[in-house]
Specification:
By secondary structure, the protein is of the alpha/beta class. The protein contains 6 helices and 7 strands. It is globular, with a radius of gyration of 14 Å.
Length: 132
């Protein structure tokens, strides 16, 4: 699997089967598409995985990148349901937890979703999902 390891890049991805995705800064459509290619490679393994996502306050997607991401999630909903055991999101502050993992977000995701301001708590929740 091709990883995006550069922590200075707008989007970095590393690890398996607990996959950390860090949104570090503004991302162009091309950078979003590169990230989505890496996400596609996760499915090619045909194994369960979990996503731990962290977003900096400076991260953002271009409009084209946002559209590409929305289309990707729509097209890959079944694969996410099949292989992704859960998405744990690290919130920048307590007030963001509900937005990141509340009922609306859970309804939109085909797999369980959780948010915490504590990375260790989010990681622990995901690790439990990955344990057979």
């Amino acid at each position: 699997m091709r990883n995006l390891h550069d922590t200075e890049a707008p989007i970095s991805v590393h690890g398996w089967p607990l996959v950390e995705v860090c949104f570090n800064g503004p991302a162009s459509a091309a950078q979003v598409n590169q990230w989505l290619e890496v996400m596609n490679a996760l499915f090619e393994r045909q194994q369960s995985f979990g996503l731990l996502t962290m977003t900096s306050t400076h991260s953002d997607f271009s409009d084209a990148g946002r559209r590409a991401m929305g289309l990707w999630f729509k097209q890959n909903r079944e694969l996410l349901a099949q292989y992704c055991v859960g998405v744990a999101r690290v919130a920048a502050e307590d007030s963001a937890v509900e937005r990141l993992a509340g009922p609306k977000m859970q309804a939109a995701m085909p797999c369980p979703i959780f948010a915490s301001v504590d990375k260790a708590v989010a990681r622990g929740w995901l690790q439990e999902k990955l344990t057979p």
